[in-house]
Known about the structure:
Blueprint: E1 4-9, H1 14-31, E2 35-39, E3 54-55, H2 59-67, H3 71-77, H4 81-84, E4 86-87, E5 90-91, E6 97-100, E7 104-107, H5 126-135
Parallel strand pairs: 1-2, 2-3
Antiparallel strand pairs: 1-6, 4-5, 6-7
The protein binds zinc ion.
Amino acid sequence: MGVIVRYYADAERRDWHGHMVSLLERIHDDHDIPVEIDRIEARHGPIDAFPEAINHPTAEAVYERDLKNNRVLIENIDQRPSEAYKRSGDLAVAGHVAIVGDDVHWASTLTGDAYGYGPGASSKTAIDFLEDVADSPSDRLCVGCLELLDSEENYCPNCGRPLG
Ligand SMILES: [Zn+2]
């Protein structure tokens, strides 16, 4: 199963958005991991010279396809998608990132970076996830089987692949 790192764009803040696009480019260039952008809301102008696909789905289509009723996602984020990706009843998907195999396996539940959220938030935020994967993918996931990792393992506990 191949892995794709997907960004639901655009993040609300321009600096977050620019940083996330450049982290995706690093993940693609340095680690040969496929990346893609689902550009739900184009808030911040054109994205130039992105190395891979930019799609333009609606938030509703993304929510139905990737998030709603996704049992693996619900187990991995420990929240209902209707709580994590809605704000006062409206869909709030733009600004998040997802690990995608056959289906979405995990997605951030906090936008931006951990600053301001308090302890423990960095494992849930979109920017901290991309930074970790850009530095060393196996800090966060096994690219062989998409098992989520916490950077302590030498071998994937699910498929046994050595992590380095
Ligand atoms: Zn694995």
